[in-house]
Design goal:
single chain; 244 residues; mainly beta; 3 helices; 17 strands; 36% strand
Length: 244
């Protein structure tokens, strides 16, 4: 029987390996975590990794330190033990943007996560953004969490503080995505059959409601230039919308 050399894809698969494993703590009584993990996300600049620990809890972990911890202590690691080796946020303003671990209680089951940055993904420097109510620095980094009750909560990644609570969806928020141009435009996809466009520069004002789906909306994504939004749901079609 003839044998053939491995293909490029087979070589890539052979070289892949598990770097590490984060395990959620077990909390059978408070029902905040320790159950199914629904979603994960990386910050655009790679500074943070966010994951839902089951039900209400989301953990923000400085990724470089987490990766170093894997390399030093082996592939398996319990998430709570990482906190003993990572720095905590302090009150020194000079340390504001230094990656620090945070545990966020979102108040309901977390279905979706997305990071948003005021720095366009194609640029290396920050852009000035005028905020109407919250006065942030140039390199603002946000985390959006989509919840079971239809709410979207916006958090400051550097401090772990809640900034906005968006409440127009009537069903589960299945997916979230930020425009990659640094505008902090957020789009949410929901089981209420709609997508909603939010302007976080304007106190989270809802700009548009997109109703092209006849069933639940599962996911959405921006084009690289942020001009087109594509979405999918419980149907056989991809719906594309031009955002102007």
């Amino acid at each position: 029987m003839a044998s053939f050399p491995p293909s490029v894809n087979e070589k890539r698969i052979a070289r892949s390996r598990t770097v590490g494993e984060l395990l959620a703590p077990t909390s059978p009584f408070d029902k905040k975590c320790g159950r199914e993990n629904w979603t994960v996300a990386f910050a655009p600049d790679g500074s943070y990794f966010a994951w839902s620990q089951g039900h209400r809890i989301v953990k923000l972990v400085p990724w470089s330190q987490c990766l170093n911890n894997f390399l030093l202590h082996g592939t398996k690691n319990v998430a709570n033990s990482i906190s003993t080796r990572l720095p905590r946020q302090n009150s020194d303003s000079s340390q504001k943007n230094k990656p620090c671990e945070h545990i966020i209680d979102c108040g309901d089951i977390v279905w979706s996560l997305a990071f948003g940055s005021s720095v366009p993904e194609k640029q290396s420097r920050c852009v000035n953004i005028e905020w109407h109510r919250f006065k942030f620095g140039q390199d603002q980094l946000l985390l959006a969490t989509g919840l079971n009750n239809g709410r979207i909560k916006i958090w400051d990644v550097y401090t772990g503080k809640l900034l906005l609570n968006l409440m127009d969806h009537t069903e589960v928020v299945r997916d979230l995505t930020f425009a990659p141009d640094g505008s902090l435009i957020l789009v949410s996809a929901s089981r209420d059959k709609t997508l909603r466009v939010w302007d976080l520069k304007d106190d989270g004002n809802m700009m548009k409601v997109l109703r092209g789906h006849q069933n639940w909306v599962y996911g959405c994504a921006f084009s690289p230039d942020s001009s087109i939004l594509c979405s999918v749901g419980a149907s056989k079609a991809v719906v594309a919308a031009i955002l102007v």
